[in-house]
Amino acid sequence: MIVLPSEADIRCPAEKIFDIVADFDEQATWLPQSSAFKGTIDISENPVRLGTTYREPGPLGVRNGVVAEYERPTRITFHQPMTMRFLLGTVDVVMRYTLTPGPESTRVRREVTLRIPWRPVKLLQPIVVHAFRTESARTLDKLRQYADGLG
């Protein structure tokens, strides 16, 4: 199991930050596409809630996600197993946001957990981990930039 944590202090109330993360339809207003992230599609309901399903296609594979935890305004977790391209199997991906309100800002922790199950995918582990680490940092930075302006 690989855990990729990142944190930021965001000058915005936890409720607003949570609502931004939970509103997939408005995601493009603060999170532009990148080489790894092409957007979220096939969203079963929006804003998301516990049990909402969605898909995120990307260069390494397709993540078929579900909202696995929803406790507004402090925690939201996405379980999104990624079916790798070229029949390489499935990487189990869990992405959890934990929001801790403070007097002037909200501490946002974004933790991505990866389980890479078998040998062919393990050979690609450095590429997969680098892609997730880079995208996770970018996502949190874009969230901070956007939400700081709303604070």
Give structural notes.
The chain is globular, with a radius of gyration of 15 Å. The longest helix has 26 residues, at 125-150. The model has no long low-confidence stretch (mean pLDDT 91). 26% of the residues lie in helices and 36% in strands. With 151 residues, the chain is an alpha+beta fold. The protein starts with a strand and ends with a helix. The chain has helices at residues 14-22, 119-123, 125-150, and strands spanning 2-10, 53-57, 61-71, 75-79, 82-84, 90-101, 106-115.
Features:
alpha+beta; 3 helices; Alpha-D-Glucose-1,6-Bisphosphate, Chain A, domain 4; 151 residues; seven-stranded antiparallel sheet; 7 strands
Taking all residues together, what is the mean pLDDT?
Answer: 91
Counted by DSSP, the helix tally is 3
Strand content: 35-45%
User: How does the major sheet shape up?
Assistant: 7 strands, antiparallel
User: What's the CATH architecture?
Assistant: 2-Layer Sandwich
Instruction: Name the CATH superfamily classification.
Output: START domain
H and E order: EHEEEEEEHH
Q: For this structure, what is the CATH class?
A: Alpha Beta
CATH topology: Alpha-D-Glucose-1,6-Bisphosphate, Chain A, domain 4
Structural class: alpha+beta
Total count of domains: 1
Low-confidence stretches: none
Topology, number of strands: 7
Question: What's this model, at a glance?
Answer:
With 151 residues, this protein is of the alpha+beta class.
List the helices and strands and how they pair.
Layout: E1 2-10, H1 14-22, E2 53-57, E3 61-71, E4 75-79, E5 82-84, E6 90-101, E7 106-115, H2 119-123, H3 125-150
